[in-house]
């Protein structure tokens, strides 16, 4: 499914790679504020897709970025984009691997920053194994930073986000057969089966704590980067509920450190 969607994402307006080659930075303002200065740091991006966020950190001064994704076409697209931007393999490296096998796939045993961006965790069946894997790649004194869609949103109706229609604590795999992609709902696709898992906020934080990482902060944000609910409107560069709609968390972010 992901392999088929890579060409759609590379060519489409959602990622706007032509524009990215000029602006070189697609990170959200809360991410850059919460991660802080990355100058001279090594950074590993787990589940990097086509590498735009990974390369954004390089643009912001990271000395070395490594992106990992299980889709070989996505990794090839990321490598091509890095080359277009003038980043050699000593500055930006991309590897193909299942995230659970990351320690054997990445070029260094640990990194100052391990980063995971929006829309990654729902594809993983075992959140504790993910946390253990990610924690093993954080250098002593370094940290893991995660920005993710808030699991509460998956419990609400798609139209207005005002009714609870799904079980927040559901743990069963959710199987979907949906054509298109979040980046182009009308895209013609053949491989449409996807499997997702719900991980509550408590599941994620507890898994990271059990893996030996110390929580520094957990923030919740009332903005999204795509029209998750049909009544969303765009304000200040983000998708939001209408101004008179009660606010709920749409994204959360956290930082956990290895002492």
From TrEMBL:
Domain of life, per lineage: Bacteria
EC number(s) from the headed UniProt entry: 2.1.1.222, 2.1.1.64
MF-aspect GO terms: 2-polyprenyl-6-hydroxyphenol methylase activity; 3-demethylubiquinol 3-O-methyltransferase activity
GO terms of biological process kind: methylation
Coiled-coil stretches: none
Assigned keywords, A-Z: Methyltransferase, Transferase
Residue ranges constituting the Methyltransferase type domain according to the UniProt record: 44-144
Family annotation (Pfam families): Methyltransf_12
Name of the molecule in the record: Class I SAM-dependent methyltransferase
């Amino acid at each position: 499914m992901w392999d088929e969607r890579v060409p759609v994402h590379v060519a489409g307006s959602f990622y706007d790679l032509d524009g990215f080659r000029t602006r070189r930075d697609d990170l959200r303002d809360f991410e850059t504020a919460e991660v802080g200065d990355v100058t001279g740091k090594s950074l590993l991006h787990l589940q990097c897709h086509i590498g735009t966020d990974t390369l954004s950190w390089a643009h912001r001064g990271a000395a070395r970025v490594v992106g990992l994704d299980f889709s070989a076409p996505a990794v090839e697209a990321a490598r091509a984009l890095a080359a277009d931007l003038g980043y050699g393999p000593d500055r930006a490296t991309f590897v193909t691997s299942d995230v659970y096998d990351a320690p054997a796939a990445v070029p260094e045993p640990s990194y100052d920053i391990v980063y995971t961006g929006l829309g990654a965790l729902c594809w993983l069946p075992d959140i504790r194994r993910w946390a253990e894997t990610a924690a093993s790649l954080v250098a002593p004194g370094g940290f893991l930073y995660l920005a993710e869609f808030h699991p509460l949103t998956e419990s609400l109706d798609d139209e207005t986000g005002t009714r609870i229609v799904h079980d927040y604590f559901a743990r069963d795999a959710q199987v979907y057969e949906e054509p298109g992609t979040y980046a182009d709902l009308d895209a013609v696709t053949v491989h449409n089966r996807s499997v997702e898992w719900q991980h509550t906020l408590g599941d994620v934080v507890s898994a990271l704590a059990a893996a030996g990482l110390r929580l520094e902060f957990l923030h919740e944000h009332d903005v999204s980067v795509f029209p998750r609910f049909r009544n969303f409107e765009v304000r200040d560069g983000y998708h939001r509920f209408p101004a008179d709609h009660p606010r709920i968390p749409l994204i959360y972010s956290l930082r956990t450190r290895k002492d």
